[in-house]
Amino acid sequence: MRKIILSILFVKLFLFASYNEGKLVFENKCSSCHLPFVQMQTLKKNFFEKSNKLLKLKAPTVNMLAYAIMHSPKKVGDPNDEEMREIEIEEYLKSYLVKPDRFNSICDEHILKYYDKKPSMKGELSDDDYVNLAIFFMQYDKYNKSKKAVKINSDFDEDEIILKAKQNEKLILVYATSKTCYYCKKMDKEVFSKNEVQKLLNKNYILLEVDMDKNKLPFNLTKYYKRVTPTFFVLDNNANYLKTYVGSWSKKDFIDILKENLK
């Protein structure tokens, strides 16, 4: 039994390491063309209502790529055979990135017309890069279901968050916390970790987490702060202040707070 548990832990650690390696490959070698996550509702509006004039995308976003590879009608490999599917995704990526061909694209044919012609990446990626990229796309949904908090630091760009909030039609939720805050840790464990909370957050909010021991609140929120952690500030997508919620909350009460601000 112990050997089985250790084997499972090893596999999980291997996949997590490979996912992070694949994420680094994507960020370092692909992100200049492919933007990060954009809400699916916004993507649909962009392409099918605004003819790409809203976002002006020249290539699919990372979540569009993950969806196309894993879930679209043109998905790669057999979902019931994970090991073989990893190999098939790896081979597809090698084939397409070395010799891009629109006729071999797995993207929606109705939106291909908006994209620039992709240049070849021949010689830019190693065999390990392709393996890690394949695992990155296979694990993308899993590692992006959790709380996606943007950590605030001295280099924080407020304009970038406002642009992201507008593009994705989301509110901004600023979470004032501290590593020594017992009730913050309690909320992280008992509230933020719950699927229902995560879905509401990911769909409707950009979550900004501020360690008050190290950094200052963004968007001129200091005047509303009562030096209590946790504290939550809700802003609209122009970063205009709406409400403050002080203290720790149960899952039910926090869900009510999130829903209350959507009305």
Automatic annotation (TrEMBL):
Gene3D superfamilies listed in its UniProt record: Glutaredoxin
GO molecular function, a single term: heme binding
Domain of life: Bacteria
PROSITE patterns in the record: CYTC
Swiss-Prot/TrEMBL keywords: Heme, Iron, Metal-binding
Keyword match Secreted: no
Cytochrome c domain sequence ranges: 17-141
Residue stretches spanning the membrane: none
InterPro entries tied to this protein: Cyt_c-like_dom (IPR009056), Cyt_c-like_dom_sf (IPR036909), Thioredoxin-like_fold (IPR012336), Thioredoxin-like_sf (IPR036249)
Pfam families: Thioredoxin_2
The protein's name: Thioredoxin family protein
